[in-house]
Design a protein that fits this description.
The structure holds two protein chains of two kinds. Chain A is about 45% helix and about 5% strand. Chain B is an alpha/beta fold. The chains are: A mainly alpha, B alpha/beta. Chains A and B meet through helix 3 of A and helix 4 and strand 21 of B. Bound molecules: flavin-adenine dinucleotide. The site of flavin-adenine dinucleotide (FAD) has 35 residues of chain B, from helix 1, strand 2 and helix 7.
Amino acid sequence: METQENALKVDRNQEGYLTDFSQWNKDVGEQIAQEEGIEMTPRHWEVINWIQEQVKADKALSIRGIKKSGVLDIKEFYALFPGGPLKISTKIAGVPKPKSCI
Amino acid sequence: MKNLLILGAGTAGTMMANQLRSKLKKDQWKITIVDQYKTHYYQPGFLFLPFDIYTEDQVKKVGKKFIPKGVNYVQKKIDRIFPEENKVKLEDETINYDILIIATGSKIAPEEVEGMKGKNWHKNVFDFYTYEGALALRNKLRDWQGGKMVVHLTEMPIKCPVAPLEFAFLADSYFKEKGMRDKVELTYVTPLSGAFTKEKSAATLGYLLEEKNINLEIDFAIESVDNENNKIIDYGGKEVEYDLLVTIPTNMGDEVIERSGMGDDLNFVPTDHHTLQSKDHENVFVIGDATNVPASKAGSVAHFQSETLTDNILLFIDGKPLKEEFDGHANCFIETGNKKALLIDFNYKQEPVEGTFPFSVIGPLKLLKESVFNHWGKLAFRWIYWNMLLKGIPIPFVGRNMSTKGKKL
Ligand SMILES: Cc1cc2nc3c(=O)[nH]c(=O)nc-3n(C[C@H](O)[C@H](O)[C@H](O)COP(=O)(O)OP(=O)(O)OC[C@H]3O[C@@H](n4cnc5c(N)ncnc54)[C@H](O)[C@@H]3O)c2cc1C
């Protein structure tokens, strides 16, 4: 099920994830962040860019992988995106959250 | 004489040896396959071993039996690949190649999580993704008196992504049959945002955990295993206590990929999604769990890949363009306990849906729905694996690309 968000003019699934990354831009990210109650700072954007690059390179996203990357430590990741950092940051980045096959 | 070298004689490597030996001229191409172990394991059987449904003998055979005549079988450890020089160093010799197929699979890496491979490893912290782990767990379960059992998934991707859920379902049945289900508190812990993460699966299968009285803990990113207090701890501070922890550790490609500088952070080799050619070297191809393609890591997937890859190797030899054919097709039976199972059939683009799936002998099977026939299908898969899949015999009615026939789209 795809819903058209009028304000954003992008296709999102029931949970609010973009279904087509080509529709993403910084304004879209900003707006999703607002919905999640997050105020974006340059540090947030650095993380978002890094996530997008990982996904482009077919690399799996995981909390442990983020720790190993040296880009940021896990405490900071939780502080930037409180609650479920991977779930929230991928939504803002316009990429799918980590999933299984079913 | 030219050399085609296959690294790994597991599911994918063995299938490629069988398919290519009958296609490549014996006076032009020498085929060599290398594996460190004498034994070929039927890994899907590791799910059943802990519950005494399969015996040891049903899940392992001598690997050489499945390598065709005319293929040079070398039982040695692979030390390093030198892709720029077209050679591979084994423990005590070096082999040159014209074409290389990497089929070194993936394996568990429990040392990636603090405390996981600690003093309680295979005592009250178990994996079932290895023969040793599954066997140790079987012996533990035979006289376990009950308590808190936690089935835990560390992170994606893992091979056979449904295996942890299947384990939880089978555990429920196992304890019921033993008349001790009331003594076991069963919890499923996942780093994902649900037990089922695809819309259609979540909608049709969501009832399963509740029906089986399995607790669910989601968004759990494990930081460490606390062996003193028997609990797993998450980066956000959440804790889950256990008496018996059954975990699927991080899955990674073999260290040989890392040593050769050919992999990503998880030692998976960057591979073209549709041709299965490695991204960095045109005479290197990758198949099965060793690739980084976003398909499931499963034997059925390796089987579909092997048909495309065989064609592409022949095209490559003839200097023709490769087929961009592989679509991520996977076809898996999922045990749900009580002698029932589900069947899912999907690819890169199409998530599993309901409908029917054509199948010879026992007739159309239900997709994404529990049935007794699907359970027979799962058990029949072992026979198909040893007698057809490994030998490269096509499975009737199951094409390399996903078909939409019968699916409710
Ligand atoms: C518990 C469990 C349940 C599963 N259930 C199913 C299922 O129901 N259906 C399904 O389709 N799939 C299932 N699978 C997945 C399936 O077993 C794998 O996807 C499949 O075996 C992958 O084949 P492969 O050839 O890529 O890797 P493997 O079969 O793992 O083979 C890799 C080979 O490479 C060798 N190797 C690696 N590194 C080296 C080295 N440095 N030197 C020498 N040799 C080396 C290894 O010894 C091994 O023999 C399951 C897996 C598990 C663990």
